[in-house]
Amino acid sequence: MTETNQPALDLLVTGASVLTGDPARPEIEKAWIGVKDGRFALIEEARADAPAPAAHRRIDLTGRVVTPGFLNIHTHANLSMVRGVAEDLGFAPAYTPGIPQGHMVTPDEAYAIARLGALEALLFGSTLINDTFVHADVVTPAMAEVGLRVWSCGRIHDVDFSGVSVGRWEHVDAIGDEKLNDALELAARYEGKSGGRIGVQLAAHAPDTCSTPFLKRIARAAEETGLRVTTHLSQSKVEVARIRARDGKSPPELLEELGLLNDRLLAAHCIHVSEDDIARIGRAGIHVAHIAKGNATGATIAPTQKLRAAGAKLTLGTDNMHADMVEVMRWALAVGRIQMGAVTDDWQPSTVFEMATMAGARAMGLETEIGSIALGKKADFVAFDFRRVHLTPRTNVLGNLVHVAHGRDVELVAVDGEVVVEAGAPTKVNESDIRRDAEAAIAALWQRARGN
After folding, report:
1. Is pTM beyond 0.85 here?
2. Keywords for this entry (predicted)?
């Protein structure tokens, strides 16, 4: 690309160090990164003996560190509505009385709150979120307008959620029909038709909130459409007890019997699993969305070391915690070492960095398109400002990123080569407007939840 007869790049980034996410060449000290037609067209060390390639736009990122965009594989953008409260409940908001819950949220409220969650994720360096909650037909395009890739689906369940938090479990066919049809309609609208900016995974909420016949329907729908499935699995003792009483099996055993436990399943949590469950999950090669910080905050830890050894594929998500994937990498590294009781060569910053990038891309079926900085891939990348005191010295760039950095150190984010965050601010939306609208929506929800 340095030859003068080559067409000009759309964007050229200079001066930055790069953590590529590519094992063949994991780090470039000072790089030229070129983008053409939304894809990486040039990735090489800057050359002192040659002029930089021509480009329509050039950004000097000297002193910054560029990484692939992070993939937040399991999140609920709307659950910022219980921020600062859900962390101390010890249980998922949907199962807890007295706080705002999904069935209370209006479409307008969902629109406002989801945009807040999406913007938070983007500003912290996520270029793709896999989000599930309510009113997906409204919030999916709304979140995508913020600038990131959005894989989304409404919660698919046939339980009447209005009774779950008070211990009433009633499965209703009409609810299941509506939720599954909504998901399939969303997929028909967006899957494969959005230039890779929007997608759908069938979000079966959890084994306990879906009846066994309904889980069978979801499995058939996944097979017929080719869509992947995402779910919560073995996330609580209540779930495990209910499935044992209802089906005489553990949740992983039930999903295996129904044909859902396979390498196209993305399962969040996997906390309360037996040795047999771990072996079963490993044999199936499922993708596990490890919610390192959220689970630890709730006094639980998924057995990540055993799951990985058995064959499970570990990814990272923030769930209903704030959307800083750098912090999640740090928690994943720490809780994994606590389980092992040692610092080992196979559980290092590179391990959790891979979980936040390429492992997430594989879980989404997008490993050939995103997840690393490589020629021909879509140009999703993030620049961290390493000129800050807490990121000095730069003896080990990846070590600094995982152990010391924060999402708030993100200066620039690009998706498809389009700069969607610059100087730490969004370029496509007004941050103040999003904050104002979300605050008003959340205040109204809390008033209703409290009976005011």
Report:
1. yes
2. Hydrolase
